[in-house]
Design brief:
By secondary structure, the chain is an alpha/beta fold. Helix content is 41%, strand content 22%. The termini are far apart.
Length: 287
């Protein structure tokens, strides 16, 4: 059995995919299985992956899966689940570049702490600045408080320079025991989780299973944050975000009709308010 199965979801950015895979090859000493899922790319990504397969001459396994269309983040990653052979499974965004031994450190820590259900590395911007990637799991009360103060800054309350337990890290780089992720069924791939809140839901599933999540600051990876979502126009991004939010709170907190009614009302007001905010910011920046 390999130490880890590494799943990279690729979509329309051959440069990022190339850099990510190259960093894995050059920076990982433990045994691994690399699964690359091409999520319906229309650029040179399929050609690069085809050439990679032809030239692969390493002891480590390589599997390339090609989706005929973009299934979204959750469903795209889930395609790889049935092929996992590693003891642990690491999900990586294509815009991640690992530092040498960072994956090895995650695996080593998890081997010593079987009571944990997930672990995440410290993410950094290309200039070396630490990315604020960990926050608390959202609850109705916390979200209401955020709207009232007009700020979503939970990640600023977390010391990203120190290794510690965390509730919800970004799924841009997150590792779980393979048995656990298979038992969970992977990400919830409901259509409303197409882009946003699927990582929040995964952390919630780990939490509800009775296990904890750890943030390992010593394991460092570079992340070009938002490289994929920047391709979306703002109103479409807002739409996907609110669909994900509604799905998350409907699933975990709002089962009664009046709770759902309040949720949809709040989501509608949020959408309109954030749209107007972005519109005013755009007008201000153009003057």
């Amino acid at each position: 059995m390999k130490d880890v199965s590494i799943i990279v979801l690729a979509w329309n950015n051959v440069t990022d995919v190339t850099n990510c895979i190259t960093s894995i090859i050059q920076g990982t000493d433990i045994s691994y299985q690399l699964i690359v899922v091409d999520n319906g790319s229309q650029d040179d990504t399929p050609r690069y992956l085809s050439e990679l397969q032809k030239e692969w001459n390493r002891d480590d396994e390589l599997l390339v899966i090609t989706n005929q269309k973009n299934l979204g983040y959750a469903a795209g990653n889930n395609v790889a689940l049935e092929y996992i052979t590693g003891r642990y499974t690491l999900f990586l965004n294509q815009d991640i570049v690992i530092e040498p031994t960072s994956i090895d450190q995650l695996v080593a820590w998890m081997k010593e702490h079987s009571e944990y259900g997930a672990i995440a590395p410290q993410l950094q911007y290309p200039d070396g600045t630490i990315q604020l990637s960990c926050r608390q799991l959202p609850t109705p009360i916390k979200m209401l408080q955020n709207y009232l103060k007009g700020s979503w800054n939970d990640e600023k309350l977390f010391d990203h320079s120190q290794s510690q337990d965390c509730e919800q890290p970004m799924a841009s780089a997150i590792m779980l025991p393979s048995d656990d992720i298979k038992q969970l069924g992977g990400f919830d791939d409901h259509p409303d989780y197409w882009l946003f809140f699927n990582d929040v839901d995964l952390s919630k599933q780990v939490f509800e299973s009775g296990k904890k999540t750890y943030f390992l600051a010593e394991s460092k990876m570079m992340h070009h944050h938002g490289a994929s979502t920047r391709k979306l126009v703002k109103i479409k991004k807002l739409k996907y975000w609110h669909r994900g939010m509604i799905r998350y709170f409907s699933k975990w907190y709002c089962q009664l009709w009046w709770q759902k009614a309040l949720l949809y009302l709040g989501a509608g007001l949020s959408f309109v308010g954030l749209f107007i905010r972005d519109l005013l910011r755009g007008l201000k920046s153009s003057t």
